[in-house]
Amino acid sequence: MHSLRREDGAATFAMYWLLPHVNRYRAQNPRTDVWVSTRMTGQPPNFSAHDLVVTRGEVAAPSSRLSECMLLFREDLAVLTSPKLLARKPLAKPADVKSHHLIESMTRPQEWAAWLKHVGISDAFMAGGHRFDHLFVASQAVQDGLGAVVAPQNVLQEAIASGDLASPFPRLNFPGESYYCHGAAGSIDPATQKFRDWLVQEARSQGSMTSAARRAGGQRSRRRSS
């Protein structure tokens, strides 16, 4: 007998983090189907139609059907670019990002300004460049070699590990919003609880491996730009 779990999450998070994990879970639990739906920034989470809902930066009200909230992880924001662009325009120091087109997402309009301030660069300005409506569009543009973006390297960790993206300054990072997994308070059916607990453990395991992934991404970037 198959069991079905329904999960809802923000589009970029679902594309780059949730779906790869769902694939792994289904490989380990072939008799459980997990159906994922996505929403865009600004769309309110639908706590009434899903078994689990993942939110960014907000938690459900105590009166919500899915009022039990568990932290997955907090965003780890850094500069991301493509290996092919690094081969043409290496980034040896933070100020070198001014040689790249600085790509922005309209849903995250202050990330570049925050990163430049974080690393002490005060004379850069955002002129021209590409501005996209959502981070997943901006991330694809970065993979295509159009420029660099400030984005959560832990959300995009698999793209970094595969070589689709590179993190040239993985330790010049700062925290962003947190992601929370919401489920029903009190009694929860065993299949949903198993999947939720597995997802939380995956997020925590990823956190323990993040330093190694950053080092690998930085080393790969340096090799390809040398």
From TrEMBL:
SUPFAM superfamilies: Periplasmic binding protein-like II. InterPro entries: LysR-type_TF_proteobact-type, LysR_subst-bd. Pfam families: LysR_substrate (PF03466). It comes from Bradyrhizobium uaiense. This is LysR substrate-binding domain-containing protein. It comes from the Bacteria. GO terms for biological process: DNA-templated transcription. Signal peptide: none annotated. Residues 11-203 form the LysR substrate-binding domain. One of its GO terms (molecular function) is DNA-binding transcription factor activity. Residues 203-226 are annotated as: Disordered. Belongs to the LysR transcriptional regulatory family.
